[in-house]
Structures are given as C-alpha cells and as structure tokens.
Amino acid sequence: MSEEYEYDDEEVEYYAIRPNKTQIKKDMAVLFALSEEMSELPAGQLKTLELPEIINKAVVEVSGMPHKGARKRLLKFIAGQLNKIDIEPILEKLSRIKNKSAHAVREHHIVERWRDRLIAEGNDALTELLDEQPHADRQLLRQLLRNAQKETEAGKPPKSSRLLYRQLKELFKVEGEPDDEVGFEDEQEDD
C-alpha cells in the first residue's frame, strides 16, 4: 500500500508565523522589572549604565514619582524603549553594581563586628586585631577605643565609635580595590 504522494507547488499555501503573545508578555515583564530596578539606583550608579538619553531621562523622572498610575505608565514606556535596544550590556553593568554593593555590605558587617568587639572586649580584642593587621596605627586605635568605651559607659553620643569605625574601614580596605561605593557605605554607617 505504499503510494507516492505528489504535491503540486501551486497548491501549497504558506502562512506567516504569528508571534507568541505569551512570550512577548513575559519579555515585556522582564523589561518592566529591569526598568523598576534601574529606577531604584542612585544617580551615580545610574550613570555607569550608560543608557540612551531618552531612557536615562525617563528613569531619573520615574525614580522620584510615587507608586501610582503615572509611574507605572512611565515604567511601561521605559520597558518599551529597552525593547528596542540590546540590553545585554546594561544587564552586565547592573550585575557588577549588585556585586559591588554586596561586597560593601560584607565589608561593612566585618568592620562593624570588629568595632563592637573592640568596645566590648577591650585590649584582648585589640591585641588580636593588631596581630591580624600589623600595619595598623596602634596608638590611634588605642586612643579611639578608650574614648569609645568612655562614651558607651557615660551614655554619650558615639562620636569616637564612629571614628573607630572609619579607622577600621580604612584598615580593612583591600589594596587595589577602588572605592566606588562611598555613598552606599556612608548610608549604611548612619544606621
């Protein structure tokens, strides 16, 4: 029963492939989320993304808007503009910014733990710190530690504690690493 089928080229009809609407919606949702994420960045970090001018203006404008309908419309506009360009370089730069921020938070926690430990344990912790960091300014650290302990005992504002934090931050700074996150770390310090 093997029959050969013959097709006449004139009878074959070709149809245009319709775009998958679900996939388009998913892609736009990703771009919308990206535009929201960019709107939460500080101005300095936003500049490093090197966005086209129209997108940059819209992101700056949307960052100051309340979470209402107009903001959502502007975010949709940004997503539409992002859809027209290659977003891979933007995603790459955004990823680097996130990694730097994560590193800054880690560094902040290490320095904060050392400061709290120094104030609580005193000279024992200071000796351990100086063994770990032999290039540290011993005299300055001892003076800041004494003053911070006195402030803590007297219930005064933590001026010396903040100075101790800054000194420890400089001490733990990794050599060769640029200090790009100054604004982020200073915000954390005020907590």
TrEMBL record:
This is Dual-action ribosomal maturation protein DarP. The lineage of its organism: Bacteria, Pseudomonadati, Pseudomonadota, Gammaproteobacteria, Methylococcales. GO terms for molecular function: ribosome binding; rRNA binding. It comes from Methylobacter tundripaludum. One of its GO terms (cellular component) is cytosol. Belongs to the DarP family. One of its GO terms (biological process) is assembly of large subunit precursor of preribosome. Transmembrane segments: none annotated. It is found in: Cytoplasm. The keyword RNA-binding applies. Its main location: cytoplasm. Member of a network of 50S ribosomal subunit biogenesis factors which assembles along the 30S-50S interface, preventing incorrect 23S rRNA structures from forming. Promotes peptidyl transferase center (PTC) maturation. Pfam families: DarP. NCBIfam families: PRK05255.1-1. The gene is darP. Keywords: Cytoplasm, Ribosome biogenesis, RNA-binding, rRNA-binding.
